[in-house]
Design a protein that fits this description.
Layout (H helix, E strand, L loop, with lengths): L2 H12 L7 E7 L7 H12 L4 E6 L12 E6 L3 H6 L12 E4 L9 E7 L7 H11 L5 E7 L4 E6 L3 H4 L7 E3 L2 E2 L1 E7 L9 E2 L2 E2 L38
Antiparallel strand pairs: 1-3, 1-4, 2-3, 5-7, 5-10, 6-7, 8-9, 11-12
Length: 238
């Protein structure tokens, strides 16, 4: 989990901010050649009247240029609706295009965990069954990635982020003890994630990037087989 997202999670928990109070929008229309700090500052000024802003972020492409979508996070119900009313605002050279960007409810309270200590000789189905039993008091196991010596578990449940790590030390049978390590929180956060799987976030996860232009396929000329030259035998005079 990146430091920004981790900080956001800590602030969210310390202030006891409810998921239902976190809203966000995406913004386009700015010149991607402008400095990022300048665009983020202008967006902050424009939308500050809508409510508490916790994050204004413009991701970068792999070429370190600005992505076309910026992300603005608010705390307070109805703040996103107020922000959408500013769609079309003139920012002195460019026009704001604000779009709704709601959270996916299926990701609420989803925690990613690394688990060790179970019998790795079991079949995949048995391992998943054991892990489901282990976390039954915390929520529902949504997905399990089984590796050689550990598993990645995606657990969905209220307060799972607090309950699941406390299961470290649980007897798994055969003298084995469970080791549960928190990896990442995939639920609602007050900050936009800066990285995902070691790659810079480069756009909205619910929108596939469009190809600016179709690549032309240049066909290489087919090679023609060289004709074999059959030499005629020299005529000799007897």
């Amino acid at each position: 989990m990146d430091e920004i997202a981790n900080k956001g999670l800590e602030v969210k928990r310390s202030r006891k901010i409810r998921d239902s109070d976190i809203e966000r929008i995406s913004v386009t229309g700015y010149d991607i050649e402008l400095p990022r700090e300048h665009v983020e500052s202008e967006l902050n000024k424009l939308f500050s009247s809508c409510g508490e802003i916790t994050d204004v972020h413009i991701p970068e492409t792999r070429n370190s240029s600005l992505w076309s979508h910026a992300f603005i996070y608010f705390v307070g119900q109805g703040t996103a609706d107020k922000a959408l009313q500013l769609n079309g605002s003139d920012m002195g050279g460019w026009t704001v295009h604000a779009e709704a960007y709601p959270f996916l409810s299926k990701n609420d309270n989803c925690v990613e965990l690394e688990v060790q200590g179970y019998d790795t000789s079991l079949s995949e189905s048995d391992i998943k069954c054991e892990l489901s039993k282990l976390f039954s008091s915390c929520g529902k196991v949504g997905h399990v990635i089984i590796c050689d010596s550990f598993s990645i578990v995606y657990l969905v449940g209220e307060d799972a982020i607090d309950k699941a790590p406390k299961l470290s030390g649980t007897d798994m049978g055969g003298g084995r003890k469970a080791l549960v390590r928190f990896v990442a929180y995939h639920g609602r956060n007050i900050f936009h994630p800066r990285r995902h799987k070691w790659r810079i976030i480069s756009g909205r996860p619910d929108v596939k990037p469009k190809m600016a232009a179709k690549m032309k396929i240049i066909k290489k000329p087919k090679r023609t087989a060289k004709k074999k030259i059959i030499k005629k035998p020299k005529m000799t005079l007897d």
